[in-house]
Amino acid sequence: MARGGRLARKLFTGTVVCAVANLYEMRALAEQGIGIVVLPDYFAAESVQRGTLDELPRLRGSRASVAVNRIVLAWRTNTIPTGAFHAVRDALCDVAASTAVHAT
To answer: pTM for this one?
Structure first.
């Protein structure tokens, strides 16, 4: 519902029965019909293709854009950098730099 150009927000009055912070568990629960989840497209694509999950269609004429997820490459602060560590990190950084999507 729109009110004054803003979406009306309805407060949640239900009961939270569980909280799941693991994407694999969230996907599995949704595939069993328990709840609705928000998953990154790359994580849900295979399930959508198999038909075990469904997704919201993009609305025609919608000005909504695809969300850009910020991904952080991180490692433990006391990691001892080895040649393999540098090779993997540099390769991931190179791929990220060559495929980066910049929000406008």
So the answer is: 0.47
